[in-house]
Specification:
By secondary structure, the protein is an alpha+beta fold. It contains 6 helices and 4 strands, in the order βαβααααββα. α1 (13-24) links the parallel β1 (4-8) and β2 (29-33). The chain starts with a strand and ends with a helix.
Length: 121
């Protein structure tokens, strides 16, 4: 199995739980700092498709940057291209953990969902 690509934020408890869970299940992954190196536009499009095209699911709606930019109000009128560009430029806006792999695209950590989606779990 090719290693999964996991975007995390060091101060995120949910991210730490996801890392611990992946290690406990011996699933290979590479970890990337989401703030310093946000997912690419292509990765965001892959995740968006896996989330049924719901842009809001890709955003860290409880984050300071989201609130300060009033994205709750702006997002409904924003184009997909504009929203993805915003996410690709600011990792603080991306919901995390953000996990991509062959046939896998998960955002946020819910153990039952990850167990069902990941082959060896």
């Amino acid at each position: 199995m090719k290693p999964l690509k996991l975007y995390t934020y060091a101060n995120c408890d949910t991210c730490r739980k996801a890392v611990k869970w992946l290690r406990a299940h011996d699933l290979p992954f590479t970890e990337h700092a989401i703030r310093e190196m946000p997912p690419t536009a292509a990765e965001l499009r892959t995740m968006l498709a896996a989330q049924g095209g719901e842009l809001r699911k890709l955003f860290n709606t409880s984050g300071k940057d989201y609130r300060e930019q009033k994205l709750g109000e702006k997002l409904p009128g924003m184009t997909e291209a504009a929203a993805l560009k915003l996410l690709a430029q600011n990792g603080n806006l991306v919901k995390r953990p953000f996990l991509l792999g062959e046939g896998v695209a998960l955002v946020g950590f819910a153990e039952p969902v990850w167990r069902a989606a990941l082959p060896k779990a």
